[in-house]
Amino acid sequence: MNxxxxxxxxxxxxxxxxxxxxxxxxxxxxxFEIAPGEILGVVGExxxxxxxxxxxxxxxxxxxxxxxxGEIKLSGQRIDNLPAEAMRKLRGRRIGAIFxxxxxxxxxxxxxxxxxxxxxxxxxxxxxAEARKRALDLLKEVGIPAAETRIDHYPHQxxxxxxxxxxxxxxxxxxxxxxxxxxxxxxxxxxxxxxxTTLLRRLCREHGTAIMLVTHDMGVIAETADRVAVMYAGRVxxxxxxxxxxxxxxxxxxxxxxxxxxSVHRRNAHLNQIDGAMPRLNAIPTGCAxxxxxxxxxxxxxxxxxxLPVSGHAAACHFPLQEAAHG
Amino acid sequence: MAEANTILEVTSASCRFDVSAPALSRLFSxxxxxxxxxVENVSFSVQRGTTFSIVGESGCGKSTLARMVVGLQRPTQGxxxxxxxxxxxxxxxxPRVQMIFQxxxxxxxxxxxxGDIIAEPIRELKLRKDESETATRxxxxxxxxxxxxxDANRFPHEFSGGQRQRISIARAxxxxxxxxxxxxPTSALDVSVQAQILNLMVRLQKxxxxxxxxxxxxxxxxxxxxxxxxxxxxxxxVESGPAEEVFxxxxxxxxxxxxxxxxxxxxxxxxxxxxxxxxxxxxxxxPGCAFHPRCSQAVERCRTEAPALRHEGELEIACHLA
Lengths: 327, 322
What we know:
Low-confidence stretches of chain B: none
Structural class of chain B: alpha/beta
Helix content of chain A: 25-40%
Mean pLDDT of chain B: 88
Strand order of the largest sheet of chain A: 6-7-8-3-9-10-11
Strand content of chain B: 15-25%
Oligomer: heterodimer
Number of strands of chain A: 11
Distance between the termini of chain B: 30 Å
Shape of chain B: globular
Shape of chain A: globular
Distance between the termini of chain A: 30 Å
Structural class of chain A: alpha/beta
Number of helices of chain B: 10
Number of strands of chain B: 13
Largest sheet of chain B: 8 strands, mixed
């Protein structure tokens, strides 16, 4: 099977929100693995459950959401049932997090140096002076020019792209083995976006850090990730190497999604569109969740929920698109 | 002959904002006045029934330019001239201009029913003679944008982002608009919904002969929509021309940078050229060509002398070297 043992393994994860009108299943049997040093992209539209998956992995799931089944293992150790205090130690030390908006993830009244030093001394047994030296190294590593002076600046003195670099430096403080990056480039301009994804890839290569990259932007995934998991209505519908999934999607939803992205290379008269919208959590159809919008749906799709086979490139579909369908 | 079809002519339009500190603090701290040049000496014309796009990163002045075109912002210099046209309803005069905003959650009044939101411009401009005709028109508009007549009685919160953007489009069309200024109309939407809205916009353009001024930072969306486009950097046009030519053979280094850095699903795991630098502040733009600190080809002349826009066929370009 996999050459390397998985660093993060998520098996059959179920998250339920208990509402007044009964429980809503937000994640329904999500399974995937991330190998050390690998970037797994998790892509999907708003409400597909991609951010929720990341939140569950770092143990920041808030009530009324709760884990209703499945398990999350980090290097073979179960982390989903850890007590809050143990999880808090693990977070930051072994799992780092990068969120979408770099301004709200930084403390506005502390200099970036103070924030970095605080994080480093919390997780690592080092003195203040050593921590500051490490903070400076980290800022240089993430590409902040004139780091010696910038370390004493406040977050508002940085631009958006530079702030996101500081957030990445914060996530790297304790040399975590896994980083959860939730839409890390969405708030940034394209030319800055490219700088950040290049940085993430470099860190991944040089430190062997695994990254779970959550985004709605298929382009970012295609250029950054090694493998991709496509989510729809709380389920993983397709998973596989990026090149395979983007070039030869097996699931009709992935295929529709890929075809609806306008190309920068040519002008098409008409964009492919998937009619309808993703179902709400209280109205997920039986069988395959995508069946009402799928052109290939049969009775089988309306009755039986397709499983996700375990293989290199897999789709949760009763009738996966064949090679022939792509010419 | 193309001239006869011009709907909007913008001549050397500039928009500057005074962002100085209050006079007294300036006096104490000996600070000079500070002026933000949001849009600087921009000229272009838009042909009827076509789409003119303006592309650029945040802070380049594209939204200020859009606001100037709809009249929400006065140019501090220069002129915007709407030509008289024969309108869709047969009358003669300047085109009716409407705007579609980026955020469909903020641009619709949450306390109004959708029917009232769309009817407001009709009532305000007295385009129909009574309420029953207005209601019919609202129903027609909802069907035109792909919603149902019954949706008029619902509230905005009952709709998804894509459906709300359809409501915004219906409201814009309610005035019998000829010219729509669309400020990032799809950037808050998911890709599959974005495709639905872009298809709708293309269909409406063909059906009603609409003219679009399309503002976006997303080059693939711009490629899909535009006949002409202009690339903006720090308030100025750096390159403009027919979309096919600009995309087919980008000349300005900034255009090439943008095309180089957009994430591309068709080229997975592409190794890209690392590009350093960020957009400088429009309050203190660099001397010479504003792009020179990020340009790999910059020479001494770029650091001192601002390049003027040069015509090359239908293209216009502001670069000493291209």
